[in-house]
Specification:
InterPro entries: MlaB-like_STAS (IPR058548), STAS_dom (IPR002645), STAS_dom_sf (IPR036513). It holds the Pfam family STAS_2. This is STAS domain-containing protein. The structure is a single chain. A five-stranded mixed sheet has the order 1-2-3-4-5. Helix 1 runs parallel beside helix 2. It is of the alpha/beta class. Helices cover 29% and strands 28% of the residues. It has three helices and five strands; from the N terminus they run βββαβαβα. The relative contact order is 0.16. Helix 1 links the parallel strand 3 and strand 4. The chain has a single domain, classed as 2-Layer Sandwich (Transcription Regulator spoIIAA), CATH 3.30.750.24.
């Protein structure tokens, strides 16, 4: 059984033109115990509440979490906070976390922030 929920929460000054100012969009799906959160656009402080709600929903029945980040053009401080919170939540619950779609610049930014759960 698959469940999907999509949320669009554009922050101030965002527009659907692509690049670092692209409008934010997130899609949460659950399939066979794998929760996938696909994020696109800029992760700004204004949308962290939406992402925290999805993170807080991770509980029994979830065997793996996959964050698909290929649509995120830049990891600023808000994005690093978001990823750190997901890493901590999955660690607390003993659930593997896969970070997918990370470019070299994303991995470098996470390494500078001291995040050990970064993947390719």
């Amino acid at each position: 059984m698959t469940a999907t929920e999509r949320t669009a929460a554009p922050g101030p000054g965002t527009r659907p033109s692509g690049g670092a100012d692209a409008a934010f969009d997130a899609c949460v799906s659950m399939d066979g115990g794998v929760l996938t959160l696909t994020v696109s656009g800029r992760i700004q402080p204004a949308v962290l509440g939406v992402l925290r709600s999805a993170k807080d929903g991770v509980r029994a029945g979830v065997r793996r979490v996959r964050l698909e980040l290929s649509g995120v053009p830049h990891l600023d401080a808000a994005a690093v906070v978001f990823l750190a919170e997901w890493c901590e939540r999955c660690r607390e619950l003993g659930i593997p976390l896969d970070l997918a779609g990370l470019g070299e610049h994303h991995r470098h930014r996470l390494a500078l922030a001291g995040m050990s759960c970064a993947a390719g």
